[in-house]
Design a protein that fits this description.
Length: about 500
């Protein structure tokens, strides 16, 4: 995107049909700091804040922070565009709808200027710190839900300067407390159960460990005065491709180094609890509720676990995109049955929501051929995602004596996928932070298919549950003998 610095002039004229910020970006305040500016933040929270700015709530501009070194390329691209970028919505009829989002008014990389990041977080104008740091970023043992001091946080405990999201949160809140500045609200927008509670737990555990040296009582102050509302966030956002860039330019005339592409669907359900000032998010379509839990369980167990159920099996069967899998009636039936018979019975009633309608909408969203979501995106970090999304459904069904064979087949397919070769012996580019520990378990010389269930931080005590082990052996055997597609057909009785 060719733009000029915001201090000098507003946006250059955009082509007709591509709306951009109708507010003065130079006058926008910095009420939000976001940690982890990836695709999803730009297609979701930044869009809601752009709408707020458009309504004249000028305090709510965003400072986007890259915590990891890997964020540099995106930050570099966005900086050359003064933080502006194009949101490209892909409709099921194949058309695209482009608009320019202006709410990211400042970009900081932790590597370049850690002091500027901390100063932004400690500034009185900052009222909200949000984050998308992925499921793996919460230093939690999946099987117990308890805090686990990982290497990154341990380094933050020892080091002079924070390098992690939680180290930054602790230090920024310490500075605010010392300065008499009210705390900000912390909003996790990651797909993890009780994301606000989990953020609070990790931050309190971390600051308590720090207190062994500081003795400053920060943890009690955080516990008493900082709000961590839970949230449910939803918009399918695949990674941007060069084809997306080319098509945007060809169809609209906009040249953007890093547009974000997404489906039209958009949802944010957020608990109505704030530490201090509260952005009027209800005015821009956010559902503010007392308890987000029913909504988040619905989304995590139907949508995210649905992705898991289709993705490893679909990849092994030779598909590469979500819509391709869904176009196969057998896989459509797999996802539909998993959602209706295995996931839905584990859900509490969801206020004002027709679950059958929600499932129908999900099948339509998955089938949208224009979105081009890849199975590889949904298969990455599989050990984390299986544990976050699928195992809770299996646990609930085992406790209730209900069905979970399709979910167990998905777990066995994940283990088969993680071996790293598909059914024709072609290599699979497996991405998983636990790969070093996984591979010996998957390819062990004794070939014991159950060995992987011993990975406690993923399976916990489920790995020792006899009914789960039996179902897993059946599923793994079926996959081994029949291959993914036939295994699905056999379980469905199709
Ligand atoms: N993409 C989607 O469809 C979608 C939808 C809903 C929710 N989400 C949530 O958003 C998260 C990010 O998805 P995305 O599509 O933006 O991915 P992405 O790969 O585009 O961006 C991930 C961001 O997270 C940061 N990050 C990763 N690990 C981190 C860590 N340990 N500490 C700090 N920052 C870290 C990265 O640096 C990057 O900025 C997901 O993990 C999920 O929880 C994604
Ligand atoms: O991004 P993750 O790791 O939470 O999970 C992969 C997908 O299921 C997820 O990104 C969905 O597309 C998204 O949650 C839709 O809102």
């Amino acid at each position: 995107m060719t733009t000029t610095p915001r201090s000098e002039s507003p946006l250059p004229a955009l082509p007709a049909g591509v709306p951009g910020p109708a507010y003065d970006r130079a006058a926008v305040g910095r009420g939000v700091v976001h940690l982890g500016v990836g695709g999803f933040h730009r297609s979701h929270q930044a869009v809601y804040f752009d709408r707020l700015l458009g309504l004249g709530h000028a305090d709510w501009g965003i400072t986007g922070v890259g915590v990891l070194a890997a964020d540099r390329p995106l930050h570099t691209a966005l900086r050359t565009q003064d933080g502006l970028y194009t949101l490209v919505l892909k409709h099921a009829d194949g058309s695209i709808e482009a608009s320019v989002v202006g709410s990211l008014v400042r970009l900081l990389l932790l590597d370049d200027d850690p002091e500027a990041v901390l100063a932004a977080m400690a500034a009185p104008s900052t009222r909200l710190v949000s984050m998308t740091i992925t499921e793996g970023g919460y230093s939690t043992d999946k099987s117990t839900g308890r805090f686990r001091l990982d290497d990154a946080l341990a380094a933050d405990l020892a080091g002079p300067r924070p390098r992690t999201a939680f180290g930054l949160l602790a230090e920024a809140l310490r500075r605010r407390r010392a300065a008499g500045t009210p705390p900000f609200t912390v909003v996790s927008c990651d797909n993890v159960e009780s994301n606000g509670d989990l953020t609070r737990q990790t931050l309190l555990e971390f600051t308590r460990l720090q207190e062994a040296h500081t003795g400053d009582g920060l943890a009690d102050w955080i516990a008493a005065s900082v709000a961590f509302p839970n949230s449910m966030v939803d918009r399918i956002t695949p990674a941007t491709t060069d084809e997306d860039r080319r098509r945007l330019t060809a169809e609209t005339g906009v040249t953007d180094r890093w547009p974000v592409v997404a489906e039209p669907y958009l949802q944010w359900v957020l608990e109505d609890r704030f530490s201090d000032a509260r952005p009027p998010l209800a005015d821009v379509g956010v559902q503010l509720v007392e308890d987000v839990r029913p909504y988040e369980l619905m989304k995590l167990r139907l949508l995210n676990a649905g992705h898991q159920v289709m993705s490893y099996l679909g990849y092994l069967a030779g598909y590469r995109r979500v819509d391709e899998v869904m176009a196969d009636p057998l896989f459509e039936q797999l996802v539909e049955r998993y959602m209706r018979l295995e996931a839905t019975p584990t859900l509490p009633p969801v206020p004002d929501t027709d679950l059958a309608g929600y499932r129908r909408t999900l099948l339509e969203r998955f089938a949208n051929p224009a979105v081009s979501d890849t199975l590889l995106r949904n298969c990455a970090e599989g050990s984390e995602r299986i544990a976050t999304f699928v195992l809770p459904v299996i646990r609930a069904q085992l406790a209730a004596g209900g069905p979970c064979d399709l979910a167990v087949l998905a777990v066995a397919a994940w283990a088969r996928y993680a071996v790293g070769t598909d059914e024709d012996g072609r290599p699979i580019p497996v991405v998983d932070a636990r790969l070093d520990r996984l591979v010996p378990l998957l390819r062990g010389p004794d070939g014991d298919p159950l060995a992987v269930l011993g990975l406690e931080e993923v399976f916990g005590d489920l790995g020792a549950d006899e009914r789960f082990r039996q179902a897993y052996v059946r599923a793994a055997g079926l996959l081994h003998r029949r291959g993914a597609r036939r295994a699905v057909a056999e379980l469905l009785g199709a």
